[in-house]
Amino acid sequence: MMAIDSTMIKRKSEHMLNEIEHLKEFKGITFEIFKDSWRNIRIVERSLQIIAQAVLDIAGHIIANKGWGTPTTYRETVMVLVRNEIIEDSLGNRLADLIGMRNILVHEYLAIDVSILHAAITQVIQDGPVFVQQILSIIP
Questions:
Q1: Total domain count, the chain
Q2: pTM here?
């Protein structure tokens, strides 16, 4: 086992928080206005994808360095942090949903429901900083 790379974790966390700041610009936009702007949709999709990827990168790094095995799915990656009491269960479940959305966005399995995308803005704005706080509490 190697030591956790606190510099990498902090850099990824900062990147996440910067993306969350960008998302805050969309928090007050009604669904009716949001759904009619492909620019709004594309920006939010990309920000959510970046945030979800940062969660995966951070979780994967911690799991590898703690020797907690190899998760079989991206969703499982987040749940390993829950099982090892790094993040709270309810937060882990919501982040697993974000990871599922990321997979749809990245692989274009199907068209994303714009109402789910719009609702995710507020949830990620709330959950992202909590995730970062819980992660940073375990690194030197």
A1: 1
A2: 0.93
